[in-house]
Specification:
Strand order of the largest sheet: 1-2-4-3-5-11-6
Structural class: alpha/beta
Helix content: 25-40%
Radius of gyration: 23 Å
Strand content: 15-25%
Largest sheet: 7 strands, mixed
Distance between the termini: 48 Å
Length: 477
């Protein structure tokens, strides 16, 4: 902790090229396992900053690792750079203005996520060299967090087996610790196969795969009454079978995401969903197959690391937003509903304050609201492998919903850049604490080992499932 001010100077010294990296990645938004331009930008930056670079990490062509330092413990800082479909948006616009092109957009701020993590790793690299401290820092560029479970595949490949601790973060509207309450999940594709027929002349000969999928949805909706309140089930048609109503649809594919707060509860709920699908197939005299697409474990918390990160947050204070940032944030807030803004405050246990547009404080940890479930993340699988801690960085106006056009619009703003540099300082300071204080790392490892003795890790991705890499010539632009 005595290294905080020094490491922050190292962050400041290299912030400009990493801000440029964030903006460059924002301009080339790419989806799960297709982040070839983004990983190339990260690779070029790693090389220019003097890291030892390894590509195709874990057999994934859009994963990359840069390492610096010698001996000592290995501290990993995790980055991401995948975008989302359908959320393209003009930078800085305060009304929906999609950009021409494929429609992808950085609506979860992963352009910032990867760049801040690389900035933190660069600062730690330079600090190690300047101080002669033994130890290694690694930046891991990880693909396909948005449902693709890139880190889950990397964990399965043993990428983190020699890492001592891992650090990451996520964009948000407040600066605090990322609570260890992300949901385990699995994505399942159900393919129903029936028999085509003329819907008017010979309906009795048809067996409708579309009917089967719809009956499955009804069955799952009844299941919702009989699952844990923290569990979630979502679905989307991948192939509804065709557009002709006078044809009995012979094939339908529907994708389900099943989530729960604990890995074992998620696996049990997914099995119940499978049985609903089998019942729907039986009722319609169709057949059904189920394929796992991806899966993620829930997050394991690590109180020693969370306490160290919280101390650095409190020492640094909130991001240095100015009047121009406040004005822009208020313009963005004008596009939100009252409920959006109120929900953001309530999510972290704060009273609603409609006069505050940007984070102006460091939240206590744990928050008054207790654990806040923020969806799912494949950082969960890393947290079962090594002691892991994450921050939430304030990079957007209060009330901004993740996966919204407003999040994309703010991704290259001055306030996003300031929040990105701020959280890079927090991650870098936490890393230097681990490299300077063997006792902290020992406590983190002991806590992690105790949790694994109670519940060993089970990968939610079956060994036969391979990542669906999207090569550039497969991208439809």
């Amino acid at each position: 902790m005595r290294n905080s001010n020094e490491i922050w100077d190292f962050v400041e010294a290299r912030k400009e090229p990493l801000i440029a990296l964030s903006d460059a990645v924002w301009a080339v938004p790419e989806l799960n396992f297709g982040e070839f331009r983004s990983v190339a930008l990260h690779g070029a930056t790693l090389e220019s900053e003097g890291f030892r670079v390894t590509r195709d990490v874990g057999g994934l062509p859009t994963a990359i690792m840069g390492e610096a330092g010698e001996g000592g413990p290995v501290i990993a800082i995790l980055g991401e750079y995948d975008a989302l479909p359908g959320l393209s948006q003009q930078a800085g616009a305060t009304q929906p203005r999609p950009l021409p092109g494929d429609g992808n957009g950085h609506a979860c701020g992963h352009n910032l996520l990867g760049s801040a993590s690389l900035l933190a790793a660069t600062a730690v690299k330079n600090w190690l060299a300047a101080t002669g401290t033994p130890g290694r820092v690694r930046y891991y560029g990880c693909p396909a967090e948005e449902g693709g479970a890139g880190k889950g595949f990397m964990v399965r490949a043993g990428v983190f087996d020699d890492v001592d601790a891992a650090i990451s973060w996520h964009p948000f509207c407040f600066a605090t610790i990322f609570p260890p309450a992300a949901l385990a999940n699995v994505r399942l594709d159900f393919t129903f196969t029936g028999r085509a027929a003329h819907a008017a002349a010979a309906p009795h000969l048809g067996r409708s795969a579309l009917d089967a999928a719809e009956l499955m949805n009804i069955g799952v909706n009844y299941l919702r009454e009989h699952m844990l309140p923290t569990s979630r089930i979502h679905y989307a048609y991948q192939d509804a079978g065709g557009v002709a109503p006078n044809v009995v649809q012979a094939r339908t594919v529907i994708r389900y995401t099943v989530r729960a707060a604990e890995l074992e509860d998620m696996l049990a709920l997914a099995e119940r969903v499978r049985r609903v699908a089998e019942g729907a197939a039986m009722m319609t005299e169709t057949t059904v197959t189920c394929a796992v697409i991806s899966g993620m474990a829930n997050l394991l918390g690590n109180p020693p690391l969370e306490a160290a990160m919280q101390a650095n947050l409190e020492r640094l204070g909130p991001p240095p937003f100015d009047a121009a940032d406040q004005a822009f944030a208020r313009e963005m807030q004008a596009t939100f509903t009252e409920q959006d803004i109120a929900s953001a405050f309530r999510q972290v246990g704060l009273p609603v304050d409609r006069d505050t547009a940007l984070c102006d404080m460091i939240l206590p940890y744990p928050t008054a609201a207790g654990p806040v479930i923020l969806g799912s993340t494949d950082v969960g699988d890393v947290s079962w492998t090594v002691p892991t801690v994450q921050a939430l960085g304030a990079t957007c106006a209060i009330g901004t919903a993740l996966h919204s056009w407003q999040m994309t619009a703010q991704g290259t703003s001055a306030l996003a850049h300031k929040g990105m540099v701020h959280v890079a300082k927090i991650m870098a300071a936490t890393a230097t604490d681990l490299l300077s204080d063997p006792g902290l790392l020992d406590r983190a490892k002991q806590d992690h080992a105790a949790k694994l003795r109670q519940r060993p890790y089970v990968s939610p991705i079956p060994p036969e499932v391979q990542p669906p890499v999207l090569y550039p010539d497969q991208v439809v632009g």
